[in-house]
Each structure stands twice: as structure tokens, then as C-alpha cells.
Amino acid sequence: MVLTDHIAQQGGSTFIQAKDGSLLGFQGQQPSTALVSTWNLFRLALVSACMLFAILVSTIYSLHRAGGAPSTRGGWLETKQSPLHHILLRDQTLSDELKNTDCGLLQRINEKATLELETLVIAETVVPYKDRVMLSKYVKHQLDASNVISNQQKSAVMTMVDMAPVEGSVNKEDRGEGGSLRNSAVIAMFKIHQNNIHFMLIGVRVEPRLGIWRRISAKERNDWNDVLSRVLYNKVRGEAKTFLAYGTPTRLLNPISATPT
After folding, report:
1. For the chain, what are the domain ranges?
2. Residue 164 to residues 75, 187, 221, 258: CA-CA distances in angstroms?
3. In the prediction, which pLDDT does 147 show?
4. pTM for the full model?
5. What pLDDT does 255 receive?
6. Fewer CB in 10 Å around end: N or C, the chain?
């Protein structure tokens, strides 16, 4: 039995001071710093590799879908390019180019009024030609439930859908008149392709809301309507281009329950 006065510790070793003056040493075990660092680096590399793999898979999937890869969402094989695409390109000449002064005028509108903006979208919808009446009911239901576009614009769209041409389009603006600042634009495209009807519609309405104490002249109202109509028409075409490039067509199964994406 060894009687001790005290216990001393130096570094990783423990020394016991005995009564007779002798030292009894015990070497403590500490984890290797190099080993811990190596393990941490390994875990970091493993996590980074997993994250990189997930990003690559997500990117490949996105590009695959954007390129028109097969999809079962609509129950049919998508084409690499929508049949409606060439109609959009054909109507490109109808675009009204923005003027150099439009940016300044838009800034003034934003400073003096609050812009109220609404959008109606019926993404590319596909229905068998023999079920074209179902498409007509579906489009009418969507238009009746929205006040984004005017009655005249709705009528033009429904006339095209009911006539069911081989291909057709509606490009119609409703410019604010009689002191109104309400402007709307719609683009609708229709095409029969491989015994299916492809249809898409984009409608946008904008109306600057002036405060109670804010007034603008009749000339300013006309200028505002001019620039807003140009902006809206370019906006609906831009939205249509985006939907055709990246959207997934919807197979119409029920004219009421189906909803545009």
C-alpha cells in the first residue's frame, strides 16, 4: 500500500507522490489530434460529395424536362417543341416596340399611382379533337370566373375555340378610354396537332390607382394608356414564351375540375 501526499499531472501523464519521496507515473491515453482531423476532413468530403451529386441530379433533371423529355403528368409523350411555338413566332411582328421615353413615363406612373396588376393563365392544354366541346366548356368556365380581360376579348377567344380552326390566334388589347386607366391584353393560341387540340391563353390587366388628391390631365391619361398598352402586350408575349419553353402541357380530363398551371 502506498501512502501519498498529493497527485500531480503533467501533460498526458499522472504522477503520485509517495511518502517515501518516490514518484509513481501513469501514462494517460488521449486521442490523436491528427486522427481526429483526418476523420473530420473525411466527413466533410463525404457530405460535400453527396451535396454535389444531389445538385447534379437536380440540374440534369431540370434540363431534361426543359428539353421536352417524356413526362407522364399529362399521360402522353411531350414533343420537344410545343406545336404552339411557331404560332407565337409568326405573330412576333405584331409586337409594339417600347419607345425610349417609356421608361421615364413608367417611373412617373409608379411615383404618382399604385399599380393594380392581375393575370389570367391557361397553360398549354391538350384535348382530343373529338372532345373539343369539352375544351370549349373548360375555357368558358375559366373566362367567366375571371375579370382580368374584357368581355370583347373573351368573346374573341371563345369564337376561335368554338370554330376550332386548324390553327389560330387571338392578339387583342383593350386600351383605357373615356378617362379610364384600365388596360388589358390577351394572347390565345389554338392548333390541331396529331388529332389533339393544343390551346393556351395569357391575359394581363393593369390599372394605375390614383390617390384622392392626385389628378392628372387628359393628355397624361392618354400618354399613360399608350405606354401601358405597349408594356402589357410585350408582357403577355414574354409570359407565353416562358410557358411554352418550360411549362408542362396539361391533359384535359374534366372541363370543370381541371385547373390551369
Report:
1. 85-251
2. 23, 16, 39, 20
3. 93
4. 0.64
5. 55
6. N
